[in-house]
Design brief:
Number of strands: 2
Helix content: over 70%
CATH topology: ABC transporter involved in vitamin B12 uptake, BtuC
Number of helices: 17
Strand order of the largest sheet: 1-2
Number of domains: 1
Order of helices and strands: HHHHHHHEEHHHHHHHHHH
Strand content: under 5%
Distance between the termini: 32 Å
Shape: globular
Structural class: mainly alpha
CATH class: Mainly Alpha
Length: 381
């Protein structure tokens, strides 16, 4: 039987198979298509509300459409400083939606790759690598590295920090992948252990730098902590382009990985017997997850739990097939981060929490509740 025929047969078996714990019953009457339409319909109004309302009521009587027309070059824009406020809120809203979508998509890829719903993007050391890159960039901007770096590149701090964070995340993911590859075979257990080891080393380096900065330069230590807790402040068009561009590229791989990831849940040996090129699938899934997470962390810093919880919630409502999970998770992640950020800015104003802190406070207890209510099912993982 040819490879194409084998894969077609495997897909047919996958459609009717219930041997995987990921194919459990869903909650509620919504079909995946209905849920996708609902999430898509909710995103534009939430974006409009996020731009129109915030810590100040400056745009309460203004028209966001007028400000948007000015950005597109077809209007005079809002009067006075209202145009600047509108643009700041627009970039923040688009950044929040893009970061939430990218982290959720990365989490869906990682959980499919590890065949474990407790896996998250941070497991590969990408968030730690991004933080280390951002920390080194902050030190460079503050003057604690050779001046030739900034003089030669002429990169401002607002560009250098996200760029170094992005490169740090990708470099860490690539290093983990290379160390976990033995004789052209990507070992998932080795990948996990390597990620944990690198995370530990990076955490030690960051603690060393932070302990020095606290005693020597409080401004540098505040900048490092701000990045470590996650931030959507100072969002710009360049960050929006980076995170949405990375998200689009990672999503482009979804049609080529969805079926194969479903078959991979039964185990690598079974997947290979059905014609799945497991080595190619694992490398493609890892690359897509790394790209999405790197872009998100480069723009917004470390935001915990979102990549862990959102794919899990989508499975509860729409099932565990990656044919729907890889598309619904980004939509749900975008709505979740955008919604929580908008709500707290509207209610708490200047006392709003950092996104990483907020996600930990919400995601941690909620995930513990999910584990408690479904603890019997954990025995079958």
């Amino acid at each position: 039987m040819s490879h194409t025929a084998t894969m077609a047969s495997a897909r047919a078996q996958s459609s009717n198979s219930r041997h995987s714990p990921w194919a459990r019953r869903t909650l509620g009457p919504l079909s995946p298509r209905s849920l996708a339409l609902l999430l898509l319909a909710a995103l534009p109004p939430l974006l409009w509300f996020s731009v129109h309302h915030g810590s100040t009521r400056a745009l309460a009587q203004a028209s966001p459409l007028q400000g948007l027309a000015h950005l597109l070059g077809s209007g005079p824009g809002l009067p006075g400083t209202l145009q600047q406020i509108f643009e700041l809120r627009l970039w923040r809203a688009l950044t929040a939606a893009g970061v939430g979508a990218a982290l959720a998509l990365s989490g869906a890829y990682i959980q499919g790759l590890f065949r474990n719903r407790l896996a998250a993007p941070s497991i590969l050391g990408m968030t730690g690598g991004a933080s280390l890159g951002a920390t080194l960039a902050i030190l460079a901007v503050a003057g604690y590295s050779p001046a030739l770096l900034l003089d030669a590149t002429e990169i401002s701090g607002s560009v250098l920090v996200p760029l170094c964070a992005f490169l740090g995340a990708l470099a860490t993911a690539f290093l983990v992948q290379r160390l976990a590859t033995v004789q052209s075979h990507l070992s998932i257990p080795t990948l996990l252990l390597t990620g944990i080891a690198l995370n530990t080393v990076i955490a030690g380096l960051l603690a060393l730098v932070l302990s020095w900065a606290v005693t020597e330069d409080l401004e540098v230590s505040r900048a490092i902590l701000r990045w470590s807790f996650g931030t959507l402040d100072g969002a710009a068009a360049s960050g929006v382009a980076l995170v949405w561009g990375g998200l689009a590229l990672a999503l482009c791989l979804a049609p080529f990985l969805a079926w194969e990831l479903d078959l991979l849940q039964a185990g690598e040996a079974d997947a290979r017997s059905l014609g799945v090129p497991t080595a190619r699938v694992k490398n493609m899934a890892l690359s897509a997850a790394a790209l999405a997470a790197a872009c998100a962390v480069a723009v917004a810093g470390q935001i915990a739990f979102l990549g862990l919880v959102i794919p899990h919630l989508v499975r509860l409502v729409a099932g565990g097939s990656h044919r729907t999970l890889l598309y619904l998770s980004p939509l749900a992640g975008a709505l979740f981060l955008l919604g929580t950020d908008t709500l707290q800015r509207w209610l708490l104003a200047d006392e709003a929490l950092a996104p990483g802190v907020l996600m930990s406070l919400i995601g941690g207890p909620f995930f513990l509740l999910l584990l408690w209510t479904r603890r019997r099912e954990l025995e079958s993982w």
